[in-house]
Amino acid sequence: MTKYEIYRLLHFAGIFTLLYSFGSLFIGRNYNKAAVIGHGTGLLLILVGGFGMQATHHLGFPVWLILKMVILAVFGGFIVLSKRKLIDGFTAWLLIMILALGAAYLGRFHPTFGKKKSLWENVTERIGM
After folding, report:
1. 21 phi, psi to nearest 5 deg
2. What is the rounded CA–CA span in Å between residue 60 and residue 58?
3. What is d(CA 88, CA 109) in angstroms, rounded to the nearest whole number?
4. How far is it between the farthest Cα atoms of the chain?
């Protein structure tokens, strides 16, 4: 396994852990300490894996990556919404799915938003990465 594959595996493990913990946080009626631990662990794994992939490919900070970090910060704030019961389960599920799909789109297609593509983006587009 290459470094990139290890970081990608960590990133996906964090995504699965985070989304699973959201299910426990917003469905249950009581405060669930294990779900809160899963939330923090998932966020940490996503950050370590994401920044590891960024470092192995020397990406810098393109717009799509900054937007993914903003989405991750919003996911971090969802713990407050859960603890204070500010939104119900369906609304939280809808917001989480929209944000997760947005992050998946940004991570898969790396949109440039009108800027010229870098050499790395052209190469990865041609090989289908």
Report:
1. -70, -30
2. 6
3. 32
4. 51
CA separation for the pair 93, 10 (Å, rounded): 24
118 burial class (0-12, 13-18, 19+ CB within 10 angstroms)? middle
Per residue in 32-70, pLDDT (tens digit) is 889 999 999 999 999 999 999 999 988 889 899 999 999
Residues 6 or more apart whose Cβ sits within 8 Å of residue 57: 4, 120
Residue where the block lists tokens 């900054």? 66
What crossing angle do the helices spanning 3-27 and 33-57 adopt, rounded to 10°? 150
Token look-up 């594959």 returns 5
Backbone angles phi, psi at 4, to 5 degrees: -60, -45
Residue holding tokens 């204070």? 84
Residue with tokens 């119900």: 88
Is pTM, for the whole model, over 0.85?
no
